[in-house]
Amino acid sequence: MSRYIGAVCRLCRREGTKLFLKGEKCYNACTLEKGKRKSAPGMHTNQRVKVTEYGRRLREKQKTKRIAGLTEEQFRNYFQRAERMPGLTGENLLRLLETRLDNVTKRLGFALSMPHARQLVLHGHVTVNDHRVDVPSYAVQPGDKIALSEKAKLNVAVQQALQVIQKRGPMPSWIEVNASHAAGKMRSWPSRDEMSYPIDEQLIVELYSK
Ligand code: SF4
């Protein structure tokens, strides 16, 4: 399945906002903040273009898709699943994305970015309830225990991530972590205000409802 393998800062420039795709660099030396290359990539990007309603909805969908690191097809599948679930479609969609194993691995502080978390999972360094799971899309459920392999605990980037997360204040209430053991647990479903996606999900619902 095709996946974007180009420069990720380009994606932030395209969306005009920080998507936090590069770990620590996003906090210390972000390209957007340095003011060097703020404009959208490509030619003629300094021209004024009126943003249409469709454009706003499209950008919100693209932003979410890029933060999650999904292809268009995968994202649409998630949306269709969210539509079939009871409750608000937009919130269901974000909950499905938030509780993917790669995202939970990142939220627990085991990884500095989503690509890093995905790599840990794909390489078999993450266990769920003591079973190795190497599927980034695995849907974590309340009560599930997530831990890192002994080998991954020694990884410099993982140790750095665990130190960083401890400095960033308290964890959201739906997860708990024991940083010294690189283990954590999902306690409950996340509420909307505890989810990590800084987007207006209603715009995505409107986009797909057309
Ligand atoms: Fe985006 Fe991070 Fe690059 Fe900044 S450093 S532009 S937040 S990927």
Question: How would you characterize this protein structure?
Answer:
By secondary structure, this protein is an alpha+beta fold. It has 2 domains: about 10-95 and about 200-210, Orthogonal Bundle (Ribosomal Protein S4 Delta 41, Chain A, domain 1); about 100-190, RNA-binding S4 domain (Structural Genomics Hypothetical 15.5 Kd Protein In mrcA-pckA Intergenic Region, Chain A). Helix content is about 45%, strand content about 10%. The chain contains 11 helices and 5 strands, in the order ααααααααβββααββα. It has helices at about 10-15, 25-30, 30-35, 55-70, 70-85, 90-100, 100-105, 115-120, 150-155, 155-165, 200-210; strands at about 125-130, 130, 145-150, 175-180, 185. The longest helix is centred in the N-terminal third of the chain and has 16 residues, at about 55-70. It starts with 7 loop residues before the first helix and ends with a helix. Iron/sulfur cluster binds near residues 8, 9 and 25.
Note the gap between the termini.
27 Å
Stretches with pLDDT under 50, minimum 5 residues: none
Describe the strand arrangement of the main beta sheet, using strand numbers. 2-1-3-5-4
The CATH topology of the largest domain is Ribosomal Protein S4 Delta 41, Chain A, domain 1
Produce a short descriptive summary.
This protein is α+β, with helices and mostly antiparallel strands.
